[in-house]
Amino acid sequence: MSSPYTIRLFGDPVLRQMAKDVSDIDGKLVKVCDSMLETMYDDAGIGLAAPQVGIQKRFFVYDFGDGPETIINPTITESRGEWLHEEGCLSVPGLHWEIVRPKEIHITGYDLHGNEISLEADELEARLFQHELDHLDGVLLLDHLDEDTRKAALATLRETLLDLDGSRAKAQEQEKRGWFRSGSGGLTLP
Fold it and tell me: Is the pLDDT reported for residue 171 higher than 50?
């Protein structure tokens, strides 16, 4: 059985775009979220942001063990502390890095019924929310790495993309487009 959506991988320009606010919470959005959850579960994830499946809207789905949830138009209103923890991403399959993020956050947004939600989260749950919110802002976990680690990660990603696609020509085309250049501000995309 195949997933309803294909998860967009590193190098896809959609992952670098700022998502737009959701204006209508309706049955269509509920169906999209159900399909995203199915895709997330098929890939053994705990969270999936709309841009990761090519939808440029500000929402994400997640399941932190208490059942599936959705946060629409999320905003982090407070954060405290620091927590170093290994982090991976469905859009950067098979790779993980230790990343420092705030340990505790307060996030607000809306649920699928249009009700305002306000959640306090810490450690892994806080990291999950921050990671998915990054996707809505066009930020990837690679952007949180120091320069040397980022360069090594990009080299590994080149080889991973070759393995996933089996095509050296595709990787060369992506490099030609600038998807693998690193600059002072992080990764440079077309």
Answer: no
